[in-house]
Each structure stands twice: as structure tokens, then as C-alpha cells.
Amino acid sequence: EDQVTQSPEALRLQEGESSSLNCSYTVSGLRGLFWYRQDPGKGPEFLFTLYSAGEEKEKERLKATLTKKESFLHITAPKPEDSATYLCAVQAGYNQGGKLIFGQGTELSVKP
Amino acid sequence: ETGVTQSPTHLIKTRGQQVTLRCSSQSGHNTVSWYQQALGQGPQFIFQYYREEENGRGNFPPRFSGLQFPNYSSELNVNALELDDSALYLCASSIGGQSELFFGEGSRLTVL
Fold first, then answer.
1. pLDDT digit string (tens) for B43-99?
2. Chain A contact probe: residue of B99, B105, B110 with most A CBs at under 10 A
3. Residue B27: CB partners within 8 Å, gap ≥ 6?
4. Looking at the partner chain, which of A49, A96, A99 has a beta carbon nearest the beta carbon of B100?
5. Residue A59's domain is classified under what CATH number?
6. Residues B2, B3, B6, B10: is their CA dihedral positive or negative?
7. Cross-chain Cβ contact A97/B102 below 8 Å
8. A39 to chain B: nearest residue by CA?
9. Which residue segment(s) compose the domain that A65 sits in?
10. B97: which residues sit within 8 A by CB, 6+ positions away?
11. Which of A4, A19, B46, B105 is a plausible cystine mate for A103, CB 3.0–4.6 Å?
């Protein structure tokens, strides 16, 4: 069964304290792995798509990496405005009508 | 460029009632997906519409149904509401064949 597990469930950082969020996945033929940011009461905001092991993408203080079993979202010198829930999702290689399988998210809190 | 818009933003229904949620896709996007997000959980795939036809469905009962219109907007209908249907319902649009989904702000449904 296709599955996505994110850890930790919650993470508290001080401003400037770098860290990483983990996304472990089991999927029959990975078509793509996606990272989203979600603020309370809002819809998810697209961050990155990764397609193959070894791929990396960066955006401001965020960097996403991918291996054959997991993805990491590295946050360098975070600021309070980076506080949000970060969601990881995968799409399987077989025809699932565009279905994304999401993890439960990591709730990040950055204190000044 | 107009993003994904959903209506209503909040609504309260009682058990057994029916509800219709609406979504306008992002300009240039022809595919619409619907997700259900319970509190503290990741979004769960309900179904996807492409060219006015259902293009994939998750593990939701038939009382969850949808439509896509020629202008690519979409509706999600839920009949015989149950308490467990209380959730944030998210609409996402994409360009057919591409996987990046762009989400709306969601419709918060409370079933009493």
C-alpha cells in the first residue's frame, strides 16, 4: 500500500536555528514527490516537485532533497514567518487520475 | 492571473442534509481535484475531473459526487451528511498531464 510518513509531527525552533523535516514514502513507482506549506485555515501552497533520487531544489531558506526512500526539507536560518505546517505528498507511477497521497504534516514553529 | 477560488468559505449543516461546494480553477487550468482534510491530518483525495469527466477516485462512498463544467469550474456534492464529513474541503487545479496542484483556500464544513 502506498504510504507517506512525516517526522517529526511538530518542531519548535529558535529563529536562526537550522533543521530538517523528513518525509518517508512507500509507493509503487514514484512519479513525483511534492512539498507544500499550509498556514492555519488556508489551503496548501505549492513549494517544490522532485522527480528522481539525487534531485535538489531550493527556494529562499528552503531546500528539498530526494532519495529512493525519503525526502528532506532543510530549513536554513528560519524566521518566524516560516512557521506553518509542511506537507509532503507523492504521486504513484501508475494511472491514479492525478491522485496525491499526503503525509500528516510537520507543524513548524519558529520563535524570535 | 486568477488563482483557485472556492465558495462558500464556511458552512454549517445538520446530519442527513445535502451540501454543494463550488470551485473556480486557476486561469489556464483544465483539471480539478477535490480533497478532504480532517483536523490535524493531511488531505485525502476524493476525485479528479478532466474535460468534464471523472478521471480518478479515492476511497469515498458514492454519496460524494462531482461535476466539472465547460469553463473548468467544478462542484462537489455530498448527500446524506454524516458527522464525520466535518472537514476542510480543498479544491485544486492543474494543467492536464502536469502534477503540480494549486489549491484554493478551502470550504470549512461543520456537520451537527
1. 999 999 998 999 889 999 999 999 999 999 999 999 999 999 999 999 999 887 666
2. B99
3. B1, B2
4. A49
5. 2.60.40.10
6. negative
7. no
8. B105
9. 3-111
10. none
11. A4
- Contact assessment for residue B56 and residue A98, using Cβ atoms and an 8 Å cutoff: yes
Check A97 against B108: CB less than 8 A apart: no
Number of domains present in the structure of chain A: 1
State how far residue B46 is from chain A, nearest Cα, in angstroms: 9
Who contacts B54 (Cβ-Cβ below 8 Å, separation ≥6)?
A97, B47, B48, B66
Nearest in space to B49 (alpha carbons), one of B61, B38, B33, B65: B33
Nearest-CA residue of chain A relative to B31? A98
Strand B64-68 versus strand B74-78 pairing type: antiparallel
pLDDT in tens, chain A (112 residues): 889 999 999 999 999 999 999 999 998 888 899 999 999 989 999 999 999 999 999 999 999 999 999 999 999 999 999 999 999 999 886 656 678 999 999 999 999 9
User: Of A77, A4, A75, which is closest to residue A34 (Cα–Cα)?
Assistant: A4
Whole-number CA gyration radius for chain B: 13
